[in-house]
Amino acid sequence: MSISNYKHTAAERFMRYVQVDTQSDPASPAQPSTEKQKDLSRILVEELKAIGITDAKLDEHGYVYATIPATSNKNVPVLCYCSHVDTAPDCSGAGVKPILHTNYNGSDIVLPDDTSVVISTKEHPYLKERIGDDIITASGTTLLGADDKAGVAIIMDLANYLIQHPEIPHGVIRILFTPDEEIGRGVNKVDMQKLGAQYGYTLDGGERGHMEGETFSADGMKVTFHGISAHPGYAKDKMVSAIKIAAAFVDKLPRNEWCPEVTEGKQGFVHPVQIEGVLERASVSFIVRDFDTAMLAKHEERLKALAEETIKEFRGSSYEFVVTEQYRNMKEVLDHHPQVMDYAEEAYKRAGMQPVRMSVRGGTDGSRLSFMGLPCPNLFTGEMGIHSKQEYVSVQDMEKAVETLVELARVWEENS
Ligand SMILES: [Zn+2]
User: In this structure, what are the phi and psi dihedrals at residue 148, rounded to the nearest 5 degrees?
Assistant: First the structure.
């Protein structure tokens, strides 16, 4: 069944949501990291209530919970549809002026507020596939915020559609809007009990037809070197500079393999993200990434061996390291619940797409939710060129995602 005679609200909502500045801040210890994220969350609660979802609520941690009640009396597992309200700290999200380019003609898009910002089909080949669609961009001085306000608008439109169409059989659907996803804290304070869902889907993917059930596994590793301090005027045969040890260590890292600059697909890497130090002590912090969790320890061993090798070059020096678990590949969880991806595939097909299973070279809210007991792959929204001024989204992609979520809810009901 098609939903083509429905007047979608996703684009209209999206154009409004992106004008609310919801940038998160990694330097803030608060929860949510920025109060302004709640500005959008409060709007969402009001709009959910206007749709007829009476239990919509914003909690003190910045999460919005809401329920689309069941229309089926079967025992259908409770699904959660989830997206995040914050935008990335990498690029300004204040004063976003969304522009709707109707019936896109395939040419490069020059943004009016800074004409040096061009969304070219060369750098964004997916645009060529969207000729004839209505494309939304920012104006050249900010990001757009399609990541992840496209997901938010899709879920809002879905709620609007399902409430208007109680004849469509589905189970209970829980809506969850999170803050702080972009700074890796998106699910820190989710109340899983209160959420009460059995399976989830994040709406935070890119191209139409893509679905992501696999993410990196991720550790942090901090290597600290100890030197020997002395007065520089009287340092002969005494001083050992920890700064120089750390520099020598970094210099040993290969540049043609094992780093983000030269890896892709299923390859893992280590990546120094911060270096800090004084004469006596210097540390290098890494992120360690691989799809195979067991490989993380191997990468860490290899870093350790390089540290060993380095201190041999510096008399009297030593090192220590700390590994911190960050997140794990959701595939380890999803493999135990194959229906979560299989039903999504079925929904994509019913909505007229050939599903493509992809892996994310990063993490999602779903990576951590999966390990918190909510198996949770990531579905497409149409958001593209994310975290940049070249960000864009196709209105028709958002509407296709709404249709997909309707089909997905039906597939779960039919199989219950
Ligand atoms: Zn996102």
Answer: -130, 30
Which tens digits make up the pLDDT trace of 6-51?
A: 999 999 999 999 999 999 999 999 999 999 999 999 999 999 999 9
**10-17 helix and 146-164 helix, angle to the nearest 10 degrees:** 140
| CATH value at residue 125 | 3.40.630.10
Measured CA to CA, the distance from residue 192 to residue 198 in angstroms comes to 10
| Helical spans, DSSP H, in 276-338 | 293-311, 331-334
Q: In one letter, which amino acid is 21?
A: D
User: What distance in angstroms lies between residue 212's CA and the mean position of ligand 1's atoms?
Assistant: 13
Would you put residue 327 in left (φ > 0), alpha (ψ -120 to 50) or beta?
beta
Kindly tell me the burial class for residue 233, based on how many C-beta atoms sit within 10 Å of its own C-beta (0-12, 13-18, 19 or more): exposed
CA of 308 to the centre of ligand 1 (A): 39
Tell how far the Cα of 309 is from the centroid of ligand 1, in angstroms: 40
Last residue of a domain, one of 326, 358, 383: 326
- Residue spans of beta strands (DSSP E) within 48-149: 57-58, 64-68, 79-84, 99-101, 109-110, 118-119, 135-137
Q: What is the pTM of this model?
A: 0.90
**Is residue 2 situated within a structural domain?**
no
> Of residues 134, 147, 148, 181, which has the active-site annotation?
181
CB 31 within 8 A of CB 62: yes
Q: How far is the CA of 210 from the centre of ligand 1 (A)?
A: 15
Question: Active site includes 47?
Answer: no
Position 113 pLDDT exceeds 50: yes
High-pLDDT (> 70) share of the chain, %: 100
Judge if 345 and 281 occupy the same domain.
no
Percent of the chain with pLDDT over 90: 96
Q: Are residues 19 and 142 in the same domain?
A: yes
Q: Which among 86, 290, 300, 407 is annotated as catalytic?
A: 86
Single-letter code of the amino acid located at 383? E
pLDDT at 1: 46
Q: How many CB atoms lie within 10 A of CB 350?
A: 17
The tens digit of pLDDT for each residue in 240-285 reads 999 999 999 999 999 999 999 999 999 999 999 999 999 999 999 9
Q: Give the Å distance between the CA of 149 and the centre of ligand 1.
A: 9
Token pair 């949510």: residue? 32
Catalytic residue status for 292: no
Residue 197 in 3-state DSSP? coil
